[in-house]
Amino acid sequence: MQNTKSPKVYIPVNVFFTETGQMRPRSLVWEDGCEYEIERIKDVRPAHAEKAGGQGDRYTIIVHGQVKYIYFEHNPEYGHRDVGRWFAERR
Fold first, then answer.
1. pTM assigned to the model
2. Looking at residues 48-73, what average pLDDT do you find?
3. How far, in Å, CA of 64 to CA of 59, rounded?
């Protein structure tokens, strides 16, 4: 049986902003409702999501000692009240 779910999963991410305006994710909630603490942010850079398609700021994070990627996809409408949303690639 083939998996018909999209490889892109939009997820809630809890973030805070530094005094210089950097967005720093603290935890994420997976589609099953489980919340995962982000232990460390290793890198942030613009990148393409290879499996899911789309593009955004790719955050290389550590969750449970493992390297993971989450993406912040910016809203193309500049000035819109919804500035963007977070996604991850489903395995």
1. 0.87
2. 92
3. 16
Distance CA 49, CA 21 (A): 24
**More confident position, 36 or 55:** 36
**The two structure tokens encoding residue 19:** 């005094």
- What average pLDDT does the segment 64-90 reach? 91
Domain locations in the chain as residue ranges: 8-89
3-state secondary structure of 43: strand
Closest CA to 68 of 42, 34, 35, 45: 42
CA distances from 66 to 1, 40, 41 (A): 29, 10, 11
Asked if the model's pLDDT at residue 1 lies above 70, the reply is no
User: For 10-17, which contacts have Cβ atoms below 8 Å and span 24 or more sequence positions?
Assistant: 10/85, 10/86, 10/87, 11/70, 11/86, 11/87, 11/88, 12/86, 13/70, 13/86
